[in-house]
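Hi everyone,

Forwarding the result from last night's run.
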Amino acid sequence: ELTEGRKIQTEGYYDSNGNKVITDTEDEIIAPGFDGLLSLTWTFSSDGTVNEMAVYDSSFTPFSYSYQKNGNTLTISPVGILFTITTLSSSKLSFYCDTVFEYEEEGIFYFEEYYSNWKLDRSSFTSDNSNSKKIKSNKDSFLKTSIDRRKKR
């Protein structure tokens, strides 16, 4: 279960001298209470599937990804971002990603820097007890929405 997440996104472009010109920065702490979020749970299965359950005030959003763990690297697909595991124990999981996306549009070179840090505690949460009074939402996955926000600006 998510105890805390933090996202820092910076975007901008490179000027004619190759210097970065920052046009926007966002720094968000994500925890229960953020955007109506009551809880966020990721369940990692031995078959390479991670199930996300975001529970909101009156709905829940289930979503499944595939994942691969190699050493301290965690790759979650279809999001396709590499996370580095900093803590992995029987009761805690912490990981972060630090990624730069660069692209060219009409002769201008843009960048988007994305850093996120996630901390989860083992929970007794099961999907059985979330369905009793909640309505399935048509919202996108919490993780995907969190990462895709950079594309919507």
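The beta strands are 2-14, 20-30, 37-44, 49-56, 59-70, 73-77, 81-88, 92-105, 108-121, 135-136.

Cheers,
N.
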